[in-house]
Design a protein that fits this description.
alpha+beta; five-stranded antiparallel sheet; four-stranded antiparallel sheet; 2 helices; globular
Length: about 120
């Protein structure tokens, strides 16, 4: 094997080992006049402990459910950033945003990364 090729391989192996798996989970809420709100989220199954890396969307806080039960709630936008670093154990999760009034819709996306 050529020495330059071996050097490249030896350089790339640690980089591959250090890379972390990242996934997203997104939710949507729409307020419907004279009716209940419509909540949508495809959900995500995680098999290793992950932590919230970042959030985005148009919302006034959000909540996370695990297997249909509320796991954690950040009820206002002011507290939403405190979720960074929150750990999610293996399971099936959904995330739903709170609507910012007077808007009728809200969105949320959480970026999750493997816990180091």
């Amino acid at each position: 094997m050529k020495p330059w090729l071996m050097a490249i391989i030896l350089f790339l192996i640690p980089l591959a080992a250090m890379s972390q798996k990242r996934i997203t989970v997104s939710g949507y809420q729409e307020r419907i006049p004279n009716s209940n709100a419509e909540l949508r989220c495809d959900g995500v199954r995680i098999t290793r402990t992950m932590e919230i890396d970042s959030i985005s969307g148009y919302h006034n806080g959000f909540w996370i459910t695990k297997s249909g039960r509320i796991e954690k709630a950040y009820w206002t936008l002011r507290h939403s950033d405190s979720c960074i670093g929150y750990e999610l154990k293996p399971g099936f999760y959904h995330v739903y945003p709170n609507v910012i009034l007077p808007s009728d819709t809200a969105t949320i996306t959480l970026w999750l990364r493997e816990k180091r």
